[in-house]
Task: structure prediction
Amino acid sequence: MTTQLKSYPEYKPSGIKWLDNVPAHWDVRRLKRVASLNPSKTESRLFLTADTPVTFLPMERVGTDGKIDEEVVPASSVWNGFTYFRRSDVLVAKITPCFENGKGACLESLSTEVGFGSTEFHVLRAGASILAQFLYRLTTLAEFRHSGADEMIGAAGQQRVPQAFVANYPLALPPLAEQTAIVRYLDHTDRRIRRYVSSREQLIELLEEYRQAVIHHAVTHGLDSDVRLKPSGVEWLGDVPAHWGVAAVKRHYSIQLGKMLQNGPNVPTDIAVPYLKAQHVQWFSVRTTDAPTMWASPHEIEQFGIRAGDLLVCEGGEGGRCSLVEEVPPGYIIQNALHRVRSFGTNRNDYLQYVMSSISKTGWFDAINNKATIAHFTAEKFGSLMIPIPPLPEQTAIVAYLDKATAAIDAAIDRARREIELLGEYRTRLIADVVTGKVDVREAVADLPQ
Result:
């Protein structure tokens, strides 16, 4: 779309390195010259009473996409200890990482005249020479976010963008009529992008549902559509092929819970070794690049060690989440937030991985892990889990079929996610080019539907 937009006929130096040249008829101003910052709530005493409905916006109710989730409360409940704002003000999060992530909003459609929110917001009020929506677009620029992050002050983890940075931020200011055109063009483009992104997200959801249906059917009914079925006697499983067995996991697999964290050597022969914990294991994926270390004896390294082909299953967190280990550097062990699973020799770990994935979507893990408290998928619960056991040749055929089928589905999901990612990059670049005057949208706006 930007390739169809023309540059302005004439430019002038802005005097600002990152801004470079700007349209010749635009002004270059500091933000404090066109907007007021953090207005005092004392102005509201003239019309606000204790019972007046006001909007309340804690940080979690303001998105990174400009959207807000309003809660209306009496003014008396939020008068003290919160940041004051009014309809058409612009909010900008000032604390890390909310600032860098882009939390903020233009409040033109606020349902109440007045609102209060987190003290971690800067409030910008547009003056006569700038539109609130144009001002908000300026605060979404990557340059604004990167420069603000560089100017943060305070202790690590509690750093904030100072008001002085926002006040002195330079901007290129077009005439009001042109700001109106820019806002209209970007709003129109945003709607088109969001509609397409929504369609891609719906496609991803459908593909993920289809993927799980393919897995579930294969591990519960096999690949022969004409096979005779029998009741399994297992609630989550239903009917299975008549020639399959149904047994507890512990009858066919060994389960080894990992080692409790040891922060130092207990004896001189202990060794510091890398270990994996629950966060390193996602569905069908094991991450080894950021493994921390703990101390263990040579015997424990052997006892809790992992090798290619092992199945790692989460004991805590999302109990039951698992992945096959395809490759791992030597010397790694597992912490006690993970189980290591190995077949006794007559079954496949990769088949069990697909079975576990199927069970997870039935809600059965949530039921047995007691998520009302701290979820734990203990070795006892895991070992007692009833699963379908096809003959080994059928397990091999099922795994081969599912590897191929899920690879095709995963590729389609990855393509859709990449499209969403590229659209996000395009949107960011477009906003920057438009609000800094690199492209002229005035003719394009004239062609937009009313």
